[in-house]
Amino acid sequence: MYFLSIDTRPTTRYPDVWIIVPAFGEAAVIGDVIAGLRSVFTAVVCVDDGSTDDTAAIARRAGAHVVRHPVNLGQGAAIQTGVEFARRQPGARLFATFDADGQHQVADVVRMIERLDSQGLDIVIGTRFAAPEAAAAVPLVKRLVLRAAVLLNPRIRRLGLSDSHNGLRVFNRRVADRLDLTMNGMSHAGEFIALISENGWRVGEEPVEVLYTDYSKSKGQPLLNGVNIMFDGLLRKKMSR
C-alpha cells in the first residue's frame, strides 16, 4: 500500500509520455533530476521507495507527481508502482524508466522515443556497450558483471541485447499493460527480459550515455549487486533450458 500526492501544475510537452523515476534516499540530487526531465516532458512520476530524507518533498517541488511506499520495497517494486500509476492516467501512450541518481540523460530518452515510434518497436533499452568509449566509462567490476550476465542468460543473447540491466527503458502501452514485476532489487531487470521473451515484444537497443559521478558511485553496492546479477543470470539460464 502506498500514499499518493499529485502535482497538478500544467505543462504542455510530450503529454502522452510518462517518465517513471524510482528513488530511495536521493534528496541530494532528485530536484535537479526532476527539473531536467520536466524541462522536456509533461508527466513525471517519482516513486519514493520508503526514503527517510526529503526525497519526496523535493521531487514534488520540482514538479513531479509523487507516489510513496511507506517502507523500502526495492527498485522492482518502485518501477511496478510507477507503471501502475502512469498507465491509469488519461492519454498515457509511452512510458520510460529513469534512474534518480543523475546517471541518465534526458536527450537519450527523446532519442529512444523517436526510435520506438519510427521502427514500430514495443520497447527500447539503453546500452552502454554500443561504442568502445562508452563501454570504457563503465567501472571495471560493473562492466565485467554485466558482460557475464549476457553470457549466462540465453534469453538475453537470443534477443540480441548487450546491456540488459540498463535502467533506461522506453516502452509502449502494450508492454505497460502486461508488465507485472514481482522481483525486487536488481533481479527485476532479468524478470523484464523474461517478460520481453515470453510476450514476444519487439525490442531494440539504443546507445546511451551513463554518467558515473562520485555521488552515483557512492550510492551503489557494486559487489552485492554483482553477486545478485550473477545469481539471477545462473538461475534464469537453468529456467530457460
TrEMBL record:
CDD domains registered for this protein in UniProt: DPM_DPG-synthase_like (cd04179)
Alphabetical keyword list: Transferase
GO molecular function list: transferase activity
Highest taxon, organism lineage: Bacteria
Pfam families tied to this protein: Glycos_transf_2 (PF00535)
Boundaries of every Glycosyltransferase 2-like domain copy: 19-178
InterPro entries, sorted: Glyco_trans_2-like (IPR001173), Glycosyltransferase_2 (IPR050256), Nucleotide-diphossugar_trans (IPR029044)
Keyword Transferase assigned: yes
Keyword Transferase in record: yes
PANTHER family recorded: RFBJ PROTEIN (PTHR48090:SF7), UNDECAPRENYL-PHOSPHATE 4-DEOXY-4-FORMAMIDO-L-ARABINOSE TRANSFERASE-RELATED (PTHR48090)
Family per record: Belongs to the glycosyltransferase 2 family.
Protein name per the record: Glycosyltransferase family 2 protein
Organism: Mycolicibacter kumamotonensis
